[in-house]
Amino acid sequence: MRWLATAVVGLGLAGAGCAPTGQAPPTQASPPPPPPATQQLVRWSDAMCGTAKAIDSARPSAVQFASSTPDATRADAFIREVATWVDGTSKQLQDLKPTGIEPVDSHTSKLRTWFTGLEKKSVDGMKAGEADKVAHAGPLAQEFSTSEPAEAGLSALAERTPELVASYNVAPGCTPVRQAGQDGRERDLVLWANIMCATTKELSTLRTDPLADPAVSDPRFQRAAWASLGTYISSAGSPLSDVSTQLSSVKPIGIAEADAYQAALLSAVQSAMAKLPQGTSSTELFQLPIDQLKAKATEVAGILATAKPKEPGLDAIVAKDEKLKAAHGLAPSCESPQQTPATAANGTDLSACQSGKCQVQITGSADVTAGGHTFKVSVSSAGVTVTDASRVLNLGPGGQGSFGDATKTIAVKLVSLTGNAAIVDITAS
Fold first, then answer.
1. What residue stretch is flagged as signal peptide (predicted)?
2. Fewest C-beta atoms under 10 Å: which of 144, 195, 336, 391?
């Protein structure tokens, strides 16, 4: 290292010799600011930060399992836990498109490959016989416990990638990294817009038509009416509670009309929460006569309607301030919903479901028969409702669920949703 010290000293002397006596050496130019944030890179950063946090939070459980001496039952439970975790977490990566930035796209590719490997290992583990469960669970736990901290690695990537750092720093799910040329104002506006878009969407899709549910309106399914109405009434406060928590966390941004809109929305939500029926359990509701249930559900629907956003809406308010408008354009929750693909694998041919496996597009509502079991699928802007003779299944965008009995299980997944048209995967097993 002696040559390096000599070179540094030599440069210092040369610099000193060039500066006139008594005059300070010229100041170095500040580094250029990073490229501005883009919607695509903010969305990428937000999805990746969420995934990284999920990986890091799952690691302690895997480390604990790897250091233990499990039996087959515990190994099987761990394998299934990982399989469920992989399915839920990897969804954040599915819709990410290439950015054209090599280190960013390389990170995406490596993470997808890692998830694919985990999925294969967990599927193989679930298929393995009881005697082989431990042998499959061990490598799966090692895969987690020996991997590097995901969030730290992502932060390092942002710091060394100039094209990414501005987007990373304003992404709601990310912790900003130090970078010259950025202040916190843009991030504050993006955070405000992101929460406001998410909460207004949630409030806009509140169900206020409980009597239109197929379980109530279709005589074939009225055995499920008590469950449908009882669940509607007992769960009505849940979305309002979530929205209230989010709106309460919003910091004022110093734009009078925007701050007033947020305050009014929070006040309406809290007022509606206070008016909802309190202290009635689902069991008690299911025992009420159907006419009383309908009346109570109608009352709840009226209360929920008061919490829906009023005009002028969020878009109109955002449009009045250029900086807030730009932040709104970056916030992941403010993106326009993806359009439903023109055709599903089986188009609109519902008869394809009789084979026990189909992907169909349904507009409005339709009866579907899969594996000899008939049920009704109803589509709204909030999601789909699946109703059979005694059950009701509500699915939001990207949601999936199943119902059935000892002889037949029907699994339904909402693939995409636009207005009153949805594409659903249906499998009977």
1. 1-24
2. 336
Tokens of 35: 């490229």
The pair of three-digit structure tokens given for residue 364, joined into one six-digit string: 């409005």
Which pLDDT value is given to residue 15? 36
Single-letter residue type at 148:
E
* Number of other residues whose CB lies within 10 A of the CB of residue 242: 14
CA dihedral 276, 282, 284, 287 (to 10 degrees): 120
Please state the rounded mean pLDDT for residues 290-296: 91
**42, containing H or E segment:** helix 39-66
Contact 197, 334 (CB under 8 A): yes
Q: Angle CA(164)–CA(170)–CA(175) in degrees, nearest 5?
A: 90
Q: Give the containing element (helix H, strand E) for 290.
A: helix 290-305
Instruction: Tell me the pLDDT tens digit for each residue of 261-271.
Output: 999 999 999 99
* CA–CA distance, 370 with 319 (Å, rounded to integer): 48
Give Cα 368 to chain centroid, integer Å: 29
With 0-12 / 13-18 / 19 or more C-beta atoms within 10 angstroms meaning exposed / middle / buried, residue 9 is exposed
Segments in 90-161 forming alpha helices (H): 91-94, 102-127, 133-145, 150-159
Residue 192 reports pLDDT greater than 50: yes
Higher pLDDT, 202 or 179: 202
Section 232-252 average pLDDT: 93
> Percent of the chain having pLDDT more than 70?
89
The residue type at 229: L
- The C-alpha atoms of residue 271 and residue 73 are separated, in whole angstroms, by 49
Residue 243 near residue 199, CB atoms below 8 Å: yes
